[in-house]
Amino acid sequence: MAVRPRDDRYGSPGDDSGPHGASGGDTPRLPVPDGGDGGEKRDRLRAADVIAEGVRGASPAEMPGRLCTVAVKLLPVVGASISLRADGMPIQLSASDDQAAHLSEVQATLGDGPCMYAASIGAPVLASDLTNGRDARRWPVFAQQATAVGVQAVYSIPLGNDAVCVGTLDLYRATTGTLTSPELRTALLVSSVMTMALMALPRGEDNEAEGEAAWLSGLATDHDEVYQAVGMIMVQSGIGADEALALLRAHAFANNRTALELAGDVVSHRKRFDRD
To answer: What share of residues in the chain are helix, strand, coil (percent, to 5)?
Structure first.
């Protein structure tokens, strides 16, 4: 995991305010329960009860979708999505609704946004105002796309541990504003359960497979088309993998489509990127 600058947590680079309105350059710490606050205990117990009820009877493959629904129920957000960190672009596992799924794919197509940034630094990123200010300037294209569909704040919580970030839980809010300390604790609790669920997913038949590919089998097969399309673009245009992915993303965005959709056209030979 990348080493984090002090001002990267809880917002855009250079943001001088955290979830509690802290200023003066200090970075707020993750709120770790100390067990001494009765209200905090009640909040955590309530959240744990809602999570337990929400995932009861779920198969491993159903867990991402169930936890997205739970997150929306527990927090002041209108949508949630879960994406895994992968080479090139994030892989969306699940979303609570079409709007959340769309914004998750927008970030994957752009290669930019709170989700991408949180995964890169391995720390929560709370983009509390996409209509104006630092957050809107940090991700101007994504901010425009998000506000156009009624989302004014996005919170991205890493999945994983101190050693590695495997993806993000992304929360979408219809109004500006940050998460309160209890709300952030709840989001972290949901992300912890999600991390454990991901680690428990079936690892496929290939016992020698390593890394993400070993335990994504059956959950993100659509994204195989993206990598296949990138390979075809490399051959057609005579360029490297990074350039091919950038070209796919640029053409998708220019035509108001997702990278996944355009990749399907490339693989089915409806779209070519022949070098002039």
So the answer is: 50, 10, 40
